[in-house]
Specification:
The chain has one domain. Helix content is about 15%, strand content about 30%. The chain is built from two helices and seven strands. The strands form two sheets. A five-stranded antiparallel β-sheet has the order 1-4-5-6-7. Strands 2-3 form a two-stranded antiparallel sheet. The two termini are about 25 Å apart.
């Protein structure tokens, strides 16, 4: 499985895991996976993503993956990249698809992500 497929799977898994609804205040974009060279486990707290998450859970992230999410009471967006890749990928619960966020290659080695609620990108 190549890095693009892994990133798409992480984004889809993050969207699926974050697809629980509840009304809470908007908290802003959160980075849950920092891109460590080892696989990581991130704790997603209840009321995370602006209230979109009802129950806390653990999210597994592959090595070198950076993942950020943001949401409100009715939608969530997730954006992800591999530090060894050339693109970022995002998706949202508003339509549910995952897409490449930029038309040209970007340097993802030291990337900081911010997810958009409407598109993920």
């Amino acid at each position: 499985m190549d890095a693009r497929n892994k990133t798409e799977l992480v984004v889809m898994g993050g969207m699926l895991a974050l697809s629980l609804a509840a009304p809470f205040a908007h908290a802003g974009s959160v980075t849950s996976c920092s891109g460590d060279v080892k696989a990581q486990q991130a704790d997603i707290q209840s009321s995370a993503a602006g209230g979109y998450v009802l129950e806390a859970f653990k999210l597994n992230c592959s090595a070198n993956v950076v993942l950020a999410y943001d949401g409100d009471a009715t939608a969530v967006g997730v954006k992800s990249a591999s530090k060894k890749g050339m693109h970022t990928f995002g998706g949202s619960s508003n339509g549910g698809s995952v897409k490449q966020c930029e038309p040209t290659s970007v340097n993802t080695a030291n990337i900081t992500l911010t997810a958009s609620i409407t598109t993920g990108c």
